[in-house]
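Record 1 of the preview.
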Amino acid sequence: MKKMIMAALFGGAILGSGFAGAVDYEIDTKGMHAFIEFKIRHLGYSWLLGRFNRFKGGFSYDGKHPQKNHVQVEIDVASLDSNHAERDKHLRSARFFDVKKYPKASFLSTSWEDLGEGRAILRGDLTLRGITRNIRIDVADVGNGPDPWGGYRRGFEGHTVLKLSDWNMKEAKVLGPAAEEIQVYLSIEGVRQ
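->
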């Protein structure tokens, strides 16, 4: 019996470490263990911070063959939250995100380049305001392991910089040249399916 338990634990450790091939994870937005946040310079004098409160997606992770890793996310753009109702209304307008015409944004990965030591470059197509562009996200492995509810989780964080004019948000120029770039931070925790 003891040998069977040890074998089961060892087998679970191998599966969890990514040696068994690609493993699918659902991003844990129900428990809000995932975040898409941004910051942008306001007039060049301070940082304006915000986030998207509603999104969903998943990823497939293969520790042995990282080139097979795959990520897909859909964002409810109207869930934009900068902690100021009037500003959020302005950002949701046609001058910026135009959520009436383009209520969803999406990201679909095209490649994963493993850099070693838990770092990677994730590339993919970001569709925003009806425009699709390939972007780069610098990724770091945060960790993985069992959770207290009998599941298994894996987490990553990512950073990227976007230019608002690439998505025809020319209104940002009114805020000054520093507002052209938006820094995006991703904290993604997935639950193994």
